[in-house]
Amino acid sequence: MLMCLALAASAAQKKGADPLSGTWTGDWGPSAADRNQVTVELKRDGKALTGTVNAGANTVALKNCTLDSKTGAVHMEADTKNRRGNDIHYVIDGKVAGDTMTGSWNHDNRKGDFKITKKVSGDDYRLPKN
Is residue 105 exposed (0-12), middle (13-18) or buried (19+ Cβ within 10 Å)? Predict the structure, then answer.
């Protein structure tokens, strides 16, 4: 029994507290009837959180990313252009629970929600579900 606990503690230390690094897939949109598929790649290196969003043919770098590891709250921003070439600044706020992140996004006068799920490998760490 003690050996099992020692192995579990060792594995937990090895994994660290990084519930975000990896590939997340799901959808986003302004309503339940208007959804878009999305893949998000996130990487946490120390306190720095970086990543990209791929929503079709356009890959966009995330910036100003933060994670509150106590609450699971995530904040991200992204800059891209619309079909007319005008700048768009997205503000994205979510919450991680286990292997799922849900939240809201907005830009200009548009807003909506998202739900993405982490593709889990055997070495991943997850925040507990509340």
Answer: buried
Structure tokens of 42? 């996130």
- Across-strand partners of 100? 97, 117
State pTM to two decimals. 0.77
Find the largest Cα–Cα distance for the chain. 64
Instruction: Encode pLDDT of 39-91 as tens digits.
Output: 999 999 888 999 999 987 789 999 999 999 899 999 999 999 988 999 999 99
Please give the Cα distance from 48 to 120 (Å, whole number).
21
Domains of the chain (ranges, CATH numbers): 19-117 (2.40.128.20)
CB 40 within 8 A of CB 22: no
